[in-house]
Amino acid sequence: MKYKLLAASILATLSTSAISATYQLTELGTLEGAKHSYVTDVSESGHMIGAANGLYNLPIDTSYIDFTENVVESAYSSEENAFELSDKVITFTLDDIENNNAVDNNPDAHDFMVSFLGSSTLGITSNFEYQKLSSLVGVIYNNDSVAEQPLFDVASVDYDGLTRSNTNFYNAVSEDGVSVGWGSAPYDKVLFTPDDEDDAETWFTHEFIERGMVVSADGLQVPLVPEFNEYGGTSRANDIIKTNSGYTVVGNVSIDIPEDRLENIDDNCDNEDEPTSVCINLLNSSASVFNKRAVKWELDEFLNINSTEILGLAFAPDEDETEDDAYTSTALAINENGTVVGSSHTRYYNNDSTIITMPVYFKDGNVIDFIDQEDDWISGKSLAINDNEVIAGYAVKFIEGSQRSQFFYHDINTGSTVFPTGYFSSSSSYGNDINNQGYIVGEGEVGVSDNTRRKEAFIYKIGEDKITNLNDLLPCFESDGETSYAYTMAEAKVINENNEIFGVATKTVEKRDTLGGIVTDVNGNTEFESVAVAVKLTPIANGEVDSCSVAELEENERSSASFPWYTLFLLPLVGLRRIFRF
To answer: How confident is the prediction for the chain on average, in pLDDT?
Structure first.
């Protein structure tokens, strides 16, 4: 794995190949009031953290909205058309939302407003005159309970509960339960009068775009405020290990703003047409305002920062480049030896003016870009490292005309990089974690149907050039021997030294609307949907692989796996750690 102190004792199952074992699947639980659950990290001592998504009853503030605006009326007209195409009758009007509290008691009205406020097509997500909503929260798994771990969110002044306006990414946990993540500041609803207007307008502003946080085992929150914090600065915390003197945390942090970006800010962010923080957000959304570098913080046992070490960039920008553009490196994981892995901007080997993001490791003051670009690799990330200095991650190249990710492992001691064969030649795959025995877990594409690619979890043992679909190590049927097994492993996130695997599975459940009620069709029949659930896979010693699993494996090898229609509803945040730890 990427980090941990080894457990004091090793289970007897370690003497048996994990790939030859079957697995028992256990759900870790789902946060009450949420549709999906995920696991992001598990320590060797059993501390488990993750995320929940698809919160029901998201609070909608309609008090400031002009429901006669074209964008609102156009969205409602589209909603009416969608109802007609489904042979349904729309159950609310805009007047019901504005004056009759429909968002609190009509699930169709609530769903409409959630979709409207989350619409990038209509430009609402980038329009800071509308409320900001986020349905992703951090969670802690503890036996059979799941508890929310808010990062930066606070109680709303406009409605009961938290604002539910900020992003939250809960990434890693140490052996004694100290955890790290990062998020944005919650939004405040403020009145602002543009220079060319007479009347004040409602805007939604916040103090910073992103900031790392350390959370003690008993819930004390310690923000990692960047030393360079103009316009809020930025920081992210992606991994943590326990040390003899405290903790080491890695992530990235803002170090400055390039000259051209400062000129853009001076020219545009004058607090005249819109609030300054809104202008900064808009500029940052098109191209990063900040130069950001991989960082290592040393904290004492009380979570005070003792030192901050900037880990560098994989190339040296020219003077004119430092004026024009912002560059980023980030640390994603650290092992017990202090070796850090992640990604960094670097030069493309065939064109010095082209900058790409590649997997790297940080060691002895150096930033090592180790993937051979001459083999056509154009991007990627190092996601994990074990204590034997072997890295797991993925890199990207064009295969059969499209960009595909391929998982790799890289041995720092020998300098060798291996890209194992995936489920099929153009299957994208990702190596998410690696333990000290050389087992890598992740996920890869198993089949194509109607131009949709579906991913399933795998386990791979270094030295054995074959990935094994974890679903082939699960039962064919439920305990009655007839009902198809309820779970499909979509992603393997973590593997510990007991070869226990933690990840995300899908299962079919009764469909629920955004207020949490059961959904029925026009005939009154209950509808169903696929949801993500956080799970643990425990090896079963001397287990036997079901014959149906072997058949499915052969189907995958022919690249033509069939699957239930409902699994096409790929889940919004499968791949949390891989996607959001830039």
So the answer is: 90
Residues 343-348: contacts with CB under 8 Å, at least 24 apart: 343/380, 343/381, 343/382, 343/582, 344/294, 344/312, 344/313, 344/314, 344/315, 344/369, 345/313, 345/314, 345/315, 346/313, 346/314, 346/315, 347/315, 348/373, 348/378
Tokens of 236: 């992210």
For residue 275, report the phi and psi dihedrals to the nearest 5 degrees: -60, 150
- Rounded Cα distance between 257 and 290, Å, is 5
> Coil, helix or strand for 541?
coil
Dihedral angle sign, alpha carbons of residues 340, 341, 343, 346: positive
Task: Give me the pLDDT at residue 541, please.
Answer: 80
Q: Provide the pLDDT for residue 567.
A: 35
d(CA 179, CA 242): 10
* Separation CA 57–CA 425 (nearest Å): 43
Q: Tell me the C-alpha distance between 359 and 338, whole Å.
A: 17
309 CA to centre of own chain? 25
Q: Identify the sign of the CA torsion 368, 180, 33, 185.
A: negative
Beta-ladder partners of 42: 48
Identify the band that residue 475 occupies on the pLDDT scale cut at 50, 70 and 90: very high
The closest alpha carbon to 7, from 50, 49, 43, 48, belongs to 43
In this structure, are strands 246-256 and 235-242 parallel, antiparallel, or unpaired?
Answer: antiparallel
Q: What are the DSSP calls for 439-477, one per residue?
A: EEEEEEEEEEETTEEEEEEEEEETTS--EEEGGGGS-SB
222 near 151, Cβ under 8 Å?
Answer: no
Compute CA distances 507 → 152, 375, 481, 530, 567, whole Å: 31, 39, 18, 5, 8
Name which of 59-68, 231-240, 273-282, 562-571 the model is least confident about. 562-571
**Nearest-angstrom CA–CA distance, 407 and 389:** 17
- Nearest CA-CA partner of 46 in 142, 145, 171: 142
3-state secondary structure 382-418: EEEECCCCEEEEEEEEEECCEEEEEEEEEECCCCEEE
| SS3 category, 341 | strand
The pLDDT of 302-316, averaged and rounded, is 97
